[in-house]
Amino acid sequence: xxxxxxxxxxxxxxxxxxxxxxxxxxxxxxxxxxxxxxxxxxxxxxxxxxxxxxxxxxxxxxxxxxxxxxxxxxxxxxxxxxxxxxxxxxxxxxxxxxxxxxxxxxxxxxxxxxxxxxxxxxxxxxxxxxxxxxxxxxxxxxxxxx
Amino acid sequence: xxxxxxxxxxxxxxxxxxxxxxxxxxxxxxxxxxxxxxxxxxxxxxxxxxxxxxxxxxxxxxxxxxxxxxxxxxxxxxxxxxxxxxxxxxxxxxxxxxxxxxxxxxxxxxxxxxxxxxxxxxxxxxxxxxxxxxxxxxxxxxxxxxxxxxxxxxxxxxxxxxxxxxxxxxxxxxxxxxxxxxxxxxxxxxxxxxxxxxxxxxxxxxxxxxxxxxxxxxxxxxxxxxxxxxxxxxxxxxxxxxxxxxxxxxxxxxxxxxxxxxxxxxxxxxxxxxxxxxxxxxxxxxxxxxxxxxxxxxxxxxxxxxxxxxxxxxxxxxxxxxxxxxxxxxxxxxxxxxxxxxxxxxxxxxxxxxxxxxxxxxxxxxxxxxxxxxxxxxxxxxxxxxxxxxxxxxxxxxxxxxxxxxxxxxxxxxxxxxxxxx
Lengths: 146, 422
Prior knowledge:
The complex is a heterodimer.
Chain A: H1 3-8, H2 17-28, H3 33-43, H4 47-55, E1 68-73, H5 76-80, H6 83-94, E2 106-111, E3 123-125, E4 128-130, H7 138-143
Parallel strand pairs in A: 1-2
Antiparallel strand pairs in A: 1-3, 3-4
Chain B: H1 19-24, H2 29-35, H3 41-51, H4 63-77, E1 82-87, H5 96-103, H6 105-119, E2 123-128, H7 133-148, E3 164-169, H8 179-186, E4 210-214, H9 215-227, H10 229-234, E5 243-250, E6 256-261, H11 266-273, E7 283-288, E8 294-296, E9 304-306, E10 313-315, E11 320-325, H12 330-344, H13 350-367, H14 373-389, H15 394-409, H16 412-415
């Protein structure tokens, strides 16, 4: 699937800009500069507007993420259910610090509440969600991705 | 004490993927009555007004009043209004809209169809959180199956009403739940709140009058028409009628989702429904209404959960209730909230952008090696500026928990944690 195919499947109306961005993010894992220009051209809006929409969002990213993108929920509910222990475990396993610039292989991030508070703590690896994660589960989960 | 099931009555009993299952449970009957002309749009609006239904998103504004404003504006401007169903919910600790959409999507669709009929709206947008990809897909599928059954579409059931419905996914972010920022993102702009007035009910999406209702609010509408406004307003409190979904989490024995009338006390909810606290735990405080909610300390457990004001009322907000006990480090929670607001501040107005950043820095120091002596002086100024000068409510929300902690634990909470200089 290319960006052109995604765009052609949508009607060129302004309200579909968001849908196009979501599809691109799902397909490529990021919305690059070229994608932005193509989306802006197709929907006849200014590229700056598309960029503004992306910069104000926490779901879209503008650069290609590393092979392993690990997100850990930092909401109060997950904090109460010991998400700090998972953070420490993941930092140890991946060799990167949370919310810092990651290595070429992996990046570790805090993410805001994803709405699965009852099943906390929540860890998202490359878009797949794991809930009720215990600190001893972390290396079992991450091993599958390395 | 038993649950009062209105929104949750079908949960677990029907198959949410099949429209037949919902039809079999008596679904879409109220909407069909509207179409057949038994219920005029005016009847629906007055029924909602009489029922005293309040917006369940957190603000608690009267739904009937909002509709009336939009109807007046659309009459004056001679434009049809838009109806947006807000299912964004990015409040930490809140997941009721996700559950409603997952367990009973057709109740949301029926409620919004009735609302659109009452308002004379032809377009409904269901606005779903960008992280809820599954739920957005489920809503899309449900809409398509309703279209196949000729419940949504042009000239539904040989009447004059035509309604179209679509799903929009938010770009993600706390501010997207705010009405005007939500409208901005649908128009393809950056998620930033607009200055008010004009209110969205006057001038919203594409300059047309727009009604934004929460998912839980519209899920109530078919039930109100079915049981009658009078019976509905008998449930709950005088000012805040009906039931609410409470999400009880934290140090209680039976954490979970409960549907109960508004106006019950926190004591009843925790001891008679959620089974009290786990053995050996001592309650520190209860936070009501998500990250922006007020704290209730153990001496205030007799307070009632409503949308009203008063000494013995707590604003129930989105319905999230978090019980924090003595095993939790409060500094961790402060850091979590501060980080959340720092990330979610859209950066439009200076007090909020800079204030939330400074609060985050203080929280980081508080969690780490200790705060600086000057932080102690700055913190109250920061909170005042945040509360009084920020453009949208996010700024004042970011200061709520700090203020509660200072008022309860006093300055000694911070004094103990000042960094010692060599």
